[in-house]
Amino acid sequence: MQEKIIILDFGSQTTQLIGRRVRELNMYCEIVPYNKFPHNDPSVIGVILSGSPFSVYDEKAFKVDLSEIRGKYPLLGICYGAQFMAYSNGGNVEPAGTREYGRAHLTKFDDANPLLKNIRENSQVWMSHGDTITAIPDNFKIIASTEKVAIAAYHAEGENLWGVQFHPEVFHSVDGTQILKNFVVDICGGKQDWDAASFIETTVAQLKEQVGNDRVILGLSGGVDSSVAAVLLHRAIGKNLTCIFVDHGLLRKNEFTNVMKDYECLGLNVIGVDASEKFFSELAGVSDPEKKRKIIGKGFIDVFDIEAHKITDAKWLAQGTIYPDCIESLSITGTVIKSHHNVGGLPEKMKLKLCEPLRLLFKDEVRAVGRELGMPEHLITRHPFPGPGLAVRILGDITREKVTILQDADDIFIQGLRDWKLYDKVWQAGVILLPVQSVGVMGDERTYERAVALRAVTSTDAMTADWAHLPYDFLAKVSNDIINKVKGVNRVCYDISSKPPATIEWE
Ligand code: XMP
User: Fold this and answer.
1) In angstroms, what is the span from residue 14 Cα to ligand 1's centroid?
2) For FRET with 79, which of 2, 150, 269, 445 sits at 20 to 30 Å CA-CA?
3) H or E element: which one contains 355?
4) Is 169 a catalytic residue?
5) Fold of the CATH domain 393-494
6) Would you say the C-alpha torsion 429, 434, 440, 446 has a positive or negative sign?
């Protein structure tokens, strides 16, 4: 049985980060809404209570009865989690004079306490709280303080219950991972047996059991998630997996052919569908970004549906859904929102059952699984690419001619990033074709041609992004190459906007 840590989510922005840190310790964990503890799951070995946007005094604050959890499992409360356990046991929580945000240091602490084993004197921790714990229940003991906060961490004596006011899960808490390790390994007794190889072994066995001899179809996009899902399923059920890869004509230069070759080398059974004619005719004359997206989304489902119907004995639809897509997130009103992804109602229409073998993995774990499965590095480290493809990078209407210009310019930029060993340093990059013409001079001739913008960003999750500070020499070389080699372009700009307030894509 795969032992697990449960993270009770009280709505903090860093809850997923707690999950990732625990997984990095090779411990399996699941994030569940604060009020959905899996009471009947025998594999739970410990519980972490997350932070929250609320104060314990807020009317709408998420409250939970811990009576059936406390005493049965070790508990660690983080920020609100710590405040909630102190407050609900007779302690006191008060608004801090000023909201404390940023670095602090553990000035006084009890290094004999198991939670603080191997933590260094003055260790930097990250604070982010509006309330502070000012009194703890009688049997609770302070085990760490900071310059400003007397009760930075506590332990309920004689019990497996701890609270920390700071956030051990964030990068700036330098010994944060050690604290989490002390909790999940030493206190909860976690065996640290969760890694890519063990995931593959158990998942392949489960898939064999779940799917048996049924036929499964899977939509490939060329991206990491769907590719890893396909290879994993292929390992489990071999020829009973049929993949469909739709080319809407808006992929990168030669991408369809190259990715098809990769898939064939991996032994996958892939049906490649060139549907570019349909997409170009439906997109003709359409400039509105949302309309373009809708046409492509619907067109994609239509084509996939037709192809999928040809596989008459299919029983399952597999998808590369990953954990961040599945975590039931809490809205501020306390309602649980579950984003459920499926291909446009296709499973219901075709009476297909859904199979999502990566639904428990974070992105970095998907990559680790891909590597363990022996997939080529360029498939695994590929930058994210939007589903509507180059359509959202051509401002205005779309024609084959514009797509070709953009593909050529984009190819020079991306290849340049690879040659200069910059590709893996940026999160995502591409070229945008602007609806602008400008005057230039080439040889003795005056030109009046198109302008393109280069976009490259650094990011960890695409929620926020900074423009990549690429070397000037590199930008100069790419600009020169694009203007000299791509007919129809005589000006290159570099986009230096961050997100927010800009977005990564221009449309
Ligand atoms: P923005 O432009 O919102 O993009 O900063 C964030 C991330 O999402 C990708 N993106 C899309 N992906 N369909 C997709 O599948 C879309 O319509 C779409 N729009 C943006 C974008 O490339 C970036 O990684």
Assistant:
1) 22
2) 2
3) strand 353-355
4) yes
5) GMP Synthetase; Chain A, domain 3 (3.30.300)
6) positive
pTM attached to this predicted model: 0.85
Q: Could you check whether the bond before residue 501 is cis, i.e. omega within 30 degrees of 0?
A: yes
- Contact between residue 453 and residue 478 where contact means Cβ atoms under 8 Å apart: no
**CA–CA gap between residue 378 and residue 200 (Å, rounded):** 21
Written as one letter, the residue type at 69 is I
506 Cα–ligand 1 center, Å: 10
Tens-digit pLDDT profile for residues 127-186: 988 899 999 999 999 999 999 899 999 999 999 999 999 999 998 899 999 999 999 999
Q: pLDDT tens digits for 286-332?
A: 999 999 999 999 999 899 999 999 999 999 999 999 988 777 666 65
Task: Round to whole Å and give the CA distance between 293 and 507.
Answer: 10
Task: Copy the structure tokens of residue 119.
Answer: 């933590």
- Max Cα separation, the chain? 88
The type of residue at 307 is E
**Beta bridge mates, 353:** 316
Give span(s): CATH 3.40.50.880, the chain. Answer: 4-187
pLDDT in tens, 326-359: 776 666 566 665 544 445 566 677 789 999 999 9
**What CATH number was assigned to the domain covering residues 4-187?**
3.40.50.880
Catalytic residue among 169, 365, 449, 507: 169
Atom of ligand 1 nearest to the CA of 502: 5
CA distances from 349 to 211, 216, 314 (A): 20, 15, 13
* CATH code that applies to domain 196-380: 3.40.50.620
